[in-house]
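are you around this afternoon, could really use another pair of eyes. what follows is a protein written twice so to speak, once as letters and once as structure tokens for the fold. i want to understand how the tokens follow from the sequence so walk me through it. anything you notice is useful, everything is just below.
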Amino acid sequence: MIQVNALNKIYGTLQALSSVDVQIEPGRITAVLGPNGAGKTTLIKSILGLVKPDSGTITVDGIRVNGESRYREMIGYMPQLARYPENLTVMEIVDMIRDIRKSASKHEGRSASTRLETQDSKDLTADQVSDVEKGAGRPGNNGQIVALHQPAQGDAPDLELWDRFGLDSEKDKAFRTLSGGNRQKVSAVLAFLFRPKVLFLDEPTTGLDPVSSSILKDKILAERDRGTTIILTSHIMSEVQELAEQVVYLLEGKVYFERSVSGLLEETEQSTLERAIAVKLGRRSEITAETGEVQ
């Protein structure tokens, strides 16, 4: 689903990422972990297209990042801190994001159609041209329609979290008046709203009460079970152990180790992920940064 190869990023004299190779499998929850300054944010923002690496390649579902923008339509993102126009109400923010998303989708559909018209529209049948103009796709080499622009899992917005969080009672309140927890709830709703194929969740339960945190975790696991690829960052190791199947641990801009959670617990003979990582870091001199293999 997501392939990162030989990624490098330098800020002045700081090597934020150094020859990072990561493969994130589809339909799984992968946790990207590491201390502050390890390169987690730079890696995630590079995949999101918010940071341009100095070298290396990133592909999302076969689409190259910084080459084309259409991969973004399959991504949902929940930042650690929700920043939206403070004067707008909750409902106005949701409507605004839906309108922006819809507008971007229409623009991408027109761009795809225009490219086809200039490249090989003479080879299309009238019905196929109509399909392209509607965003349905283009003919592949075998004559079948290949999707160019379609929401990954349906057009209807996903409002399950809106209902379960009880946000109807907050919908007419200005965003600036919301508590930190309610801001986080709005951010979660927006991340899941378009049924993305790929979800980035940055410290998703920060500020949530135990009930709301449980609701969000249930939703994350349910989406995983539906085949959504989820990338999670969190400083709460019990949360990572509860949710994630794979851990990518960054240290000083490099992949220090990449392991399944179960494999890491078994290797270190620990019952909790927190202690397993502590053991792994304590044996740092025995582990190569490139492979994470014990020597």
In short: Residues 111-154, 287-295 have pLDDT under 50 and may be disordered. Residues 2-86+150-286 form a domain with the Rossmann fold fold (CATH 3.40.50.300). The CA atoms of residues 82 and 184 lie 6 Å apart.
